[in-house]
């Protein structure tokens, strides 16, 4: 990541990271693509069947599927999402499982110190 403004091709980066995920023991790979004062974005990839185990949600975040299909699950609901879909992540514990090889952009609002 850099502070300079530059365009990134998420489809190309997704393909590169998916190759890494396919060879990784945990079946996943990720790369930070933007870090600002109040916003962070990372591109995550999972090979089919791999998952991000249940974890806490940040205060505000979205998941945008770049390629493939995933299932996001909370204690109360689950969503199957495909390429091009965007969802706000509920503010509760959740997991994400790849139904196919998948890449998704995670956008998180960072905490604002109101000092």
TrEMBL record:
Gene3D superfamilies: Jelly Rolls. Coiled coil: none annotated. InterPro entries: RmlC-like_jellyroll, RmlC_Cupin_sf. SUPFAM superfamilies: RmlC-like cupins. This is LuxR family transcriptional regulator. The lineage of its organism: Bacteria, Bacillati, Actinomycetota, Actinomycetes, Micrococcales.
């Amino acid at each position: 990541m850099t502070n300079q403004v530059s365009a990134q091709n998420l489809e190309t980066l997704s393909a590169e990271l998916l190759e890494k995920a396919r060879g990784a023991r945990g079946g996943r790979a990720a790369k930070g693509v933007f870090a600002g004062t109040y916003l962070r974005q990372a591109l995550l990839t999972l090979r089919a069947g791999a998952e991000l185990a249940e974890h806490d949600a940040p205060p505000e975040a979205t998941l945008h599927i770049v390629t493939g299909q995933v299932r996001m699950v909370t204690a109360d609901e689950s969503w199957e999402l495909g390429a091009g879909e965007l969802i706000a992540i509920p503010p509760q514990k959740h997991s994400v499982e790849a139904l196919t090889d998948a890449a998704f952009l995670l956008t998180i609002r960072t905490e604002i110190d109101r000092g």
